[in-house]
């Protein structure tokens, strides 16, 4: 008779279910109210739990936002990074089409994207999560990184800087502060990415 030594206990299963409820409650509350206006009470009310239970899983609303960003939002973005890596050889048209899909993904959850960017400027927890997430995306784009620069560290740095530019520009667009049309937004962001790619290709 085999014994499953690593099988979670009923208590551990219950804790995992509760955390998942809090995670989605956080995502949905931040998505509807934004970072500044969301409170822990609103999250626990939405999840049907208590403040005490919330603090068993997260130290603050910032930590809950960071977890929701990493475990929900980043998962949604992973296929888009895998997609652009498979476009090689890249062209202005293919990068423009990819950028359109990236912006559409942010537009599908605008308030959560705005909440994340608001927290980035205020909270070191969210800032660290963001840079860790961008570093993880590097593993999804090996072809792109190899094209950007044969020195992998330089390639990762350029990739992360372009991601930063793209995220901040998308934030300006979603908040209604971008000084142009959606078409101009796509053209400008695509130009920076294809320029970096072509620069790398010219060195190879």
TrEMBL record:
Keywords: DNA-binding, Transcription, Transcription regulation. InterPro entries: Homeodomain-like_sf, HTH-type_TetR-like_transc_reg, HTH_TetR. SUPFAM superfamilies: Homeodomain-like. Residues 16-76 form the HTH tetR-type domain. Residues 39-58 bind DNA. The keyword Lyase does not apply. PROSITE patterns: HTH_TETR_2. The keyword DNA-binding applies. This is HTH tetR-type domain-containing protein.
